[in-house]
Every structure is written in C-alpha cells, then in structure tokens.
Amino acid sequence: MTPLVMHPGPIGARAWAAAKRLIGARFRLQGRDAATGLDCVGVVVAAYAAAGVRLLASDSYGLRGMALDAAAAALDGGGLARCAQPLAAGDVGLFALPARQLHLALLAPDRIIHADAALRRVVGAPAARLPPPVLRWRFQERI
Known about the structure:
- The protein has helices at residues 10-22, 40-50, 68-75, and strands at residues 4-6, 32-33, 37-38, 80-82, 91-97, 101-107, 111-116, 121-126, 135-142.
- The protein is α+β, with helices and mostly antiparallel strands and 143 residues long.
- The protein has one domain (4-142): endopeptidase fold (from Nostoc punctiforme).
C-alpha cells in the first residue's frame, strides 16, 4: 500500500491559484460550475478540479443547520485529511457562522477565497474577515 503524506505541496498551491481565478464568479446555491455560479462547496471542488484533483462532494447537502460532526464526516476522505499543521495555501477550512450555518473556504496564511452569499459572488478577502476555521483539511498526496 502506498503511504499518504500531507504537506503543502504543489496540489494545494495549484488549487489556491485556481481559486484566485474563480474570484468574481457569481454565487449560486449548490453551484458547481463557475459559468453558472458556485457556492462554498463548489468553490473548493472547482479549485481542486482545476488543480487535477476530483474531490468527492455530495450534490445534496445543507450546511445551514447541519451538525458539525456530520459536515466534518462528509469532508473526511475524498482526497482530503484533517490537518493541524501550519496553514498552507490550498487548505480547506470549515467555519461555524451565526444561525447554525457552516461554511467552506480555501485558505492561505493571510487570505481566504469563498462564495459570499451576501455579495452574491466568489470573493477573496483577508483571513480576519471570518472567524478562525473550526476544522481544516489538506490534500493527501501519495508518495
């Protein structure tokens, strides 16, 4: 069996670069295509797809009111693994927002890229714009 290693390698950096190109795409709930709109999950899936990685993501989910454990379980695997290492570009953060709403974003040490439902588009923002993520994942590369 090939061992897995988590490191801030080229996949994460490529996903971050791809996410930057998504800035300005319109917001669409459960959107998976930048041409028609993306939601927070769609941004992560599209960025990693552009980096050459197909992440497994359900097309039927509801981060509003979803239990943190259920959301975390849905994100575990599929090419990502929970990470406690220092933050690197391309990490995926899960945020707990008011009104029991969970939110995903691509992370870098001082920036985030996410689908902002209030602004109705994908935006880049300072990391301080959101509270710290409650959980973080990083792509697992086979060595």
